[in-house]
Design goal:
single chain, 394 residues, alpha/beta, Aspartate Aminotransferase, domain 2, 2 domains, 7-stranded mixed beta sheet, 43% helix
Length: 394
């Protein structure tokens, strides 16, 4: 029997919520079911809500700093959950993963330099690069037998370009749902280290892992990986506290750490907020049981979606993820462009999914669905998708 409640549907409209209140600029209407944006329709763990409530009652919300308990919470979490304990001296603050990517671009590249990405991938990667005058260099993933894989031959070829100074790794991969194996990461790190590039490893989804799957932090696979890797982590996806704008970077190399910190200091991004700091500590220190129940519930949602598709929409396939709660649905059998598929789902189905084409090369024909919602909303979403596909068949 579960201790925590993931079945209650909580009203989020009118709460200045991006997922529920911010659809109209993207989809042309706000009167649809949101199954986009990687946050959950579940309350944060009560252990987190409790410390936030206590701090609100304190009534003073002045400038904040992070001390030893903050860094110890991060190190302890990664030791318990992923078998890797980073030195607390390696840990630095960032308001979020995307700001960390932007800071890394400023710290380690110059205008005109190349930054390598592996599409289809989290779409803010692209904006972080082009918005600062750098070039996107693509090492597209290979989709084969229902799963995405790295193209190591192409990676070696692309890194022969000496202007490529930085690589963005998404681990686990969003939206592909892959949790890279240790062997894959060792090979990836070896290639990158041999070319002298810095790797930003976005590991924000690393805690959502399904049966039999283990996440391996890139920096843990070898000494050469540790020396080139900046790992970005956060409790935001894991515990549904993204609105508290608190994340961390882990940088073993002192040279890289000092360069990164100099940019953070210049941009004055090190202040943070008091609620994010105490929420991170509570989540990482007391959130294990909640996360275990959440992951089991999410896996049941995956089973529900697969079963629903088999019965009602056999031409649509769930790309079963090894991790993350934002997997892809494969609509390629419909033969639609990305905008056409999005238009069909919105106008005929009344449902908002992240368009696969938003994620770049290889994404067209897919759509990303957020499964972190009560089962009733998952069922409603699948019925909306079925309605859209049936209208297309006519």
């Amino acid at each position: 029997m579960r201790k925590y409640d993931f079945d209650t549907v909580i009203e989020r409209k009118g709460t200045v919520c991006a997922k529920w209140d911010g659809m109209e600029p993207i989809f042309g209407t706000g009167d649809i079911l949101p199954m986009w944006v990687a946050d959950m329709d579940f309350k944060a763990p009560p252990e987190v809500v409790e410390v936030l409530r206590e701090r609100v009652e304190h009534g003073i919300f002045g400038y904040t700093r992070r001390f030893a308990p903050y860094r110890e919470a991060i190190a302890g979490w990664f030791e318990r959950r992923h078998g890797w304990r980073p030195d607390t001296e390696w840990i630095r603050h960032t308001p979020g993963v995307v700001p960390a990517l932007s800071a890394a671009i400023l710290a380690f590249t110059q205008p005109g330099d190349g930054v390598l990405v592996q599409p289809p991938v989290y779409y803010p990667f692209f904006a972080a690069i082009t918005g600062r005058g750098r070039r996107i260099v693509e090492n597209p993933l290979i989709f084969s037998d229902g799963r995405f894989e790295m193209d190591f031959g192409d990676l070696e070829k692309k890194l022969e370009d000496s202007s490529v100074k930085l690589v963005f790794l998404c681990s686990p991969h969003n939206p592909g749902g892959r949790v890279w194996t240790r062997e894959e990461l060792e090979k990836f790190a070896s290639i990158c280290a041999s070319r002298g590039v810095v790797v930003i490893s976005d590991e924000i989804h690393c805690d959502i892992l399904f049966r039999g799957i283990k996440h391996t932090p890139l920096a843990s696979v070898s000494e050469e990986a540790r020396n080139i890797t900046i790992t970005t982590v956060a409790p935001s996806k894991t515990f549904n506290i993204a609105g508290l704008s608190t994340a961390a970077v882990i940088i073993p190399s002192k040279r890289l750490r000092d360069n990164y910190q100099s940019v953070i200091d210049f941009l004055h991004l090190d202040g943070g907020n008091v609620f994010g700091t105490i929420a991170l500590e509570a989540a990482y220190n007391r959130g294990d049981a909640w996360l275990d129940e959440l992951t089991a519930y999410l896996e049941e949602n995956l089973d529900f979606i697969e079963h629903y598709l088999e019965i009602h929409l056999p031409e649509i396939t769930l790309i079963r993820p090894e991790g993350t709660y934002v997997p892809l649905l494969d609509f390629r059998s419909l033969g639609l462009s990305g905008p056409e598929l999005q238009d069909l789902l919105v106008k005929k189905g009344g449902v908002a999914l992240d368009g696969g084409h938003w994620f770049g090369t290889g994404g067209t024909g897919f759509a990303r669905i957020n499964i972190a919602a009560p089962r009733l909303l998952i069922q409603e979403g699948m019925e909306c998708i079925e309605k859209a596909i049936k209208s297309f068949r006519k």
